[in-house]
Amino acid sequence: MALLLPQNWEITHDIAQNAHLIENISATTSLDAEFFTPGFWHAHGQIVHTAHGRGTTYFVQQQEEVWVLREYLRGGLIARFIQRHFYFTSLTATRVYQEIALLLKLQQDGVNVPTPVGGYVQKQGLWYTNKILLAAIPGAREIHALCRTDQLTETICQRIGREIAKMHNAGVFHHDLNIQNILIDAQEQIWLIDFDKCFAAKQLTQAQCQSNIARLHRSIEKKRKQHTHYVFTAAHWQALLDAYADTLLVAS
Hints:
Transferase(Phosphotransferase), domain 1, alpha+beta, 3-stranded antiparallel beta sheet, 8-stranded antiparallel beta sheet, 2 domains, 30% helix
């Protein structure tokens, strides 16, 4: 299902740079292309944290908020040859446009996901690079961290199950639903993150829903093998499944 940005979002074209800036025109801060370069934030001493995975994610201080700056990078074997560049077909098909549109849809449907701040697409011949800015979730931690410190409870697992079901009820399939893409904030609200390459359908099939759940379970088992102390018990998992089933609308 093709998703488009709402009317309060605007795309401006910088002809000289052959680039497109995607932003919410009703936001209090107007974006600039410099905001999508780590060097800008470093020069102003506003990088407060970095996270390393597939590339570096930058957490930057912008007035009273913390924003998250991430570049889209390829994974797998092809990344050895082409890491940052993607074949351009249309602006609405770019990774950043699709993720922003999907996050806005999920928020409209009541799912706890990060708020998109903006995106930047730069064309280079037949290819493009792109970056996204998101509002950081205050006080959020990975559920993965709770499993390593004996802080996970069945109540938290129930909330995880409900949030995943809400995402599926919204017709959204998560491309990489793993234990590190689920966060909990100081109020113990659950948040789902990293919606790159995810997609929306009018209604997910039962097989698609179960594929997400199975992917999550595999990630938990993988972490359990990697760490000598990792507490995600059968009772925790069952609490998650029960809450998920109670919240999920019937899938076809």
